[in-house]
Amino acid sequence: MKNANRITKDEGLKFFKKTDLLELGRMADNIRKELHPEGIVTFIVDRNINYTNICINRCLFCAFWRDQNDPDAYIIEKDELFRKIKETIQLGGTQILIQGGLNPELDLSYYINLLKEIKNRFDINIHGFSPPEICYIADRSDLTTREALIILKEAGLDSIPGGGAEILSDRVKDVISPRKIKSNRWLMVMEEAHKLGMKSTATMMFGSVENAEDIIEHLDAIRTLQDKTGGFTAFIPWSFQPGNTALAKSLEDRAKSKNSALRIYPATAVEYLRILALSRIYLDNINNIQASWVTQGLKLAQVALRFGANDFGSTMIEENVVASTGVRYSVSKENIIKAIRDAGFKPAQRNTYYKIIRHF
Predict the structure, then answer these.
(1) How many degrees, rounded to 5, is the angle at CA 123 between CA 141 and CA 96?
(2) Which of 59, 190, 221, 227 could make an SS bond with 177 (beta carbons 3.0 to 4.6 A apart)?
(3) Is the separation of the CB atoms in 183 and 135 below 8 Å?
(4) What per-residue confidence (pLDDT) applies to 342?
(5) Which residues contact 240 (CB under 8 A, 6 or more apart)?
(6) Residue 111 is part of which domain span?
């Protein structure tokens, strides 16, 4: 629902550039208290399963992708996939997040069979295939994105992760991911999915080559679509991790050649908290903002709970994409519960749709 007192793009930009960090945090924390007055912070038990690392997009910010002929390129074996899902359920998991590269070896039948075989064996929510994957599946099969979504939903796809958005500015995308779908297609896939009754998350990867105006454009695009469909369950901002990426090397080379100070380092904790708080203030129609311990670590994720976040994300029994950059934070469910308690909140396990299934 649209908030009559919502801030404008110009106000958002002013907040981002000029408001003191602690004041911005206070504003975001007050909004969090209004939306979640009971002081509960949620998390989900799930696993990220990457079914292939072969990808034709070759995004410069990504250290995970491989070419077909690379020695460590793979397509997951079914037995391994099922073992991972079984283990997830044994650990109390209710969801698998399944994503992969755009692999030319895989056709529509692969995805249909994958979904059906999972659903035939397991009672678990499949949160899978980000918009670039949906578009690739549709284009390869000469289908519209809506037709592809209907087929995948019927096969067992429950909800869609927000990957592939990065920054919803084609100026930025042309630098960091020139082969990937543009902003309008990402938004179109999400709109079509929401119209079919499928929920999704929204994400933002910041800290590469974007500026403050790009960040506001991204938040505004998400807010505008949410006004229209109401299909986003949560927003997840996370910072670009430059380790082992072509983008970091490219920026470093440019910096050396031009004697400039182009970014070749991860976003700072201050930058992360500023963007997190701004996201909570700007996105008045999305109930949940997720802290990213995966990129920021457990301690900063605790601080994020006072800068607008109300969700601790996933236990991530497995995570490979961020880990490929050399950043590896590993936490257990018990670690998350303790971190939430120590920050002064009440921990609760949720499902994909932010329904609480257990209090601790």
Answers:
(1) 60
(2) 59
(3) no
(4) 96
(5) 61, 205, 206, 207, 208, 247, 266, 267
(6) 9-359
**Three-state SS for 257?**
helix
Domain assignment of residue 181, yes or no: yes
In a domain, 338, yes or no: yes
Residue 2 belongs to some domain of the structure: no
Mean pLDDT (10-residue bins), the chain, 360 residues: 79 96 97 97 94 83 77 91 93 93 93 97 97 96 98 98 94 88 97 98 91 96 98 94 61 55 69 96 98 86 97 75 46 90 97 97
The contacts of residue 11 (CB under 8 Å, 6+ apart) are: none
Q: Write down the pTM of the prediction.
A: 0.90
Domain-embedded: residue 173: yes
Looking at residue 56, its pLDDT comes to 82
Q: How many domains does one find in the chain? A: 1
- Mind giving me the DSSP string for 27-71? HHHHHHHHH-TT-EEEEE-EEEEESB-B-SS--TT-SS-B-TTST
The whole-number pLDDT of residue 247 equals 63
Q: Domain containing 145 — which CATH number?
A: 3.20.20.70
